[in-house]
Design a protein that fits this description.
The protein is α/β, with parallel strands linked by helices and 285 residues long. The chain folds into 2 domains: 92 residues, Leucine Dehydrogenase, chain A, domain 1 (Rossmann fold), CATH 3.40.50; 125 residues, Rossmann fold, CATH 3.40.50.720. It has 10 helices and 11 strands. The strands form 3 sheets. The chain has a 6-stranded parallel β-sheet. A 3-stranded parallel β-sheet has the order 3-2-4, with helices on both faces. Helix 1 runs parallel beside helix 10, helix 6 packs across helix 7 and helix 6 packs across helix 10. The structure holds NADPH dihydro-nicotinamide-adenine-dinucleotide phosphate.
């Protein structure tokens, strides 16, 4: 029997509807409107699209968004000065600097400059440290989206062997920490490009999560029959957007599978809204 699809798009719609009510309630009981400030340096077409989507999402749930555009040739000092201003602003609750930034600007410097209380991407070292100690202020959006997708589809991680392929700071690494924490209680294996005999490892997974950026890399023979497969990858190919998982082959083997597009992506976006509302609550209380 083909895998059941984990529909991130409709789940994100449902969470946005819940958020709309929570935001309305917040606005009724406070003097400010939850506000996200997005900073876009340069004219990278993909970044333009991401920022446009994020602003549209904000609008849909009643969160106010600001867009701060800076020219491609902006210096690191100029960007840091803008972040300092946004950190101080009482009108701004969440700050998001769209990555990547141009080469003359050091990403780590930028992420460190955002106030941890306004760091709705949860990339600041303080927020990463808090996550490791299981007392997070904000959860990083893509890992949080993956966990919510599992939770709201009644797929428990407790006692399960979760294999994650990809160890980036924004997806695989934080996800491995979150899944190993008390509460999630998974047994986690974190794989990367130096992992030996990757298919032998992925075949052990009850839940396989793939975030590597290689189109259709995970094939049916790498998946245990009945496993849950979460495909985080987004790859632009001549045939359109595809994930890191060979969807057509793997759907014949897996028990549950996320589509691309329409799987993890919409949930990543919605988690930014969740964090922005949480930031507004923190800063106003
Ligand atoms: P990075 O490029 O930062 O990291 C890729 C990771 O994959 C690295 O750890 C790398 O290993 C590992 N890797 C690469 N090739 C292989 C291989 N052949 N075998 C095993 N491991 C491999 O990627 P990101 O985490 O930023 O993104 C991964 C994918 O997820 C991309 O397609 C991206 O577009 C997508 N993405 C989707 C999001 C969503 O919301 N759906 C959000 C964020 C990202 P090593 O460390 O050894 O180099």
């Amino acid at each position: 029997m083909p895998a059941l699809l984990l529909d991130g798009k409709s789940l994100a719609r449902q969470i946005r509807a819940e958020l709309r009510e929570e935001v309305a309630d917040f606005i009724e009981n406070n003097v400010t409107i939850p506000t996200l400030a997005a900073v876009l340096v340069g004219n990278d077409p993909a970044s333009e699209v991401y920022v446009r989507f994020k602003r549209r999402d904000c609008e849909e749930v009643g969160i106010r968004s600001q867009l701060h555009r800076m020219p491609e040739e902006s210096t690191q000092e100029e960007l840091l000065a803008l972040i300092a201003k946004l950190n101080k602003s009482d009108e701004v609750h969440g700050i998001l600097v769209q990555l990547p930034v141009p080469d003359q600007i050091r990403t780590e410097r930028v992420l460190e400059a955002i106030s941890p209380l306004k760091d709705v991407d949860a990339f600041h070292p303080e927020n990463v440290g808090r996550l490791v100690q299981n007392r997070p202020v904000y959860l990083p959006c893509t890992p949080h989206g993956c966990l919510e997708l599992l939770k709201r589809n009644d797929i428990s991680t407790v006692g399960k062997h979760v294999v994650i392929v990809g160890r980036s700071d924004i997806v695989g690494k934080p996800l491995s920490i979150m899944l190993a924490q008390r509460g999630a209680d998974a047994t986690v294996t974190l794989c990367h490009s130096r992992t030996q005999d990757l298919p032998a490892v992925t075949r052990l997974a009850d839940i396989l999560i793939v975030a590597i950026g290689r189109p259709k890399f995970v094939t049916a023979d790498m998946v245990k029959p009945g496993a849950t497969v979460i495909d985080v990858g987004i790859n632009r190919t001549d045939g359109g957007l595809v994930g890191d998982v060979d969807f057509d082959g793997v759907k014949e083997v897996a028990g549950h599978l996320t589509p691309v597009p329409g799987g993890v992506g919409p949930l990543t976006r919605v988690m930014l809204l969740v964090n922005t509302l949480a930031a507004a609550r923190r800063l106003e209380n």
